Amino acid sequence: MSLQNDVFVKVILMLPNKAYQNNNIGFIDLIQNTLIGFIILFIIAFMMIKPIDERPPMEKHAQFIITVTWDSKTSDDVDTWLESPEGTIIYFKNQKTDVAHLDRDDIGTARDTIEHSDGTKEIIYINQEILTIRGIIVGEWILNVHMYAKRSSDPANVVVTIDKITPYERVLRKQVKMKDKGDEITITRFTMDRGGNILKTSDVFKSLVIIKTISSSSTSPYIDYGE
User: Fold this and answer.
1) What is the DSSP letter of 188?
2) CA 76 to CA 156: how far, in whole Å?
């Protein structure tokens, strides 16, 4: 084979290798760019992660719903009082806390009138307060009802229910009669475990209502009977 032919063969043999190298470099560039993209996405996702809350974990959805209902057409004002194991008291002047809240302070028929867009008025006869326990705190809870204002002559029939939401269970249904202004009844004292289960109950009375005989600078709960 002549020298010219030999050179031509070498050139031909080198062409595929060079093409392969070019393809290989392109593939490596693609891998590098993809890797860089993943790294950028990871950094962005990491920056969006919320800082860890150092407080003890607490369930934020409803665990228990307490419903207090009394005679629908009476102007009597019955209040719901709940004390948590930590000593926090939920009532009409402290309706929202981290662990529970009182949805509405019902004062009888005084606020049951609604006005429609055409100006007509309608009375919705329902006397009811709903209190939601939204967290699990281990220990004893105390639930009381209190007759803030007694405007009718007949005793008020008050029905109290406690429902566990998940899984659903009717924990308690109790009916009591309240005759006079200032009456306070302990509906139940129940002990909750870490799983939100009710371990034991009792109805030994404990007052949660403090009559306003203390100084106005105190932050303790009180009842102001002014109407």
Assistant:
1) E
2) 8
Domain parsing of the chain, residue ranges: 1-49, 64-202
Q: CATH says 64-202 is which class?
A: mainly beta
* pLDDT > 90 in the chain, percent: 43
- CA torsion sign for 150, 148, 107, 72 is negative
Q: How far apart are CA 99 and CA 90, in angstroms?
A: 10
182 class by beta-carbon count within 10 Å (0-12 exposed, 13-18 middle, 19+ buried): middle
Asked whether the beta carbons of 216 and 185 are under 8 A apart, the reply is: no
Cis peptide before 167 (omega within 30 of 0): yes
Euclidean distance between CA atoms 17 and 72, whole angstroms: 93
Q: pTM (2 decimals)?
A: 0.64
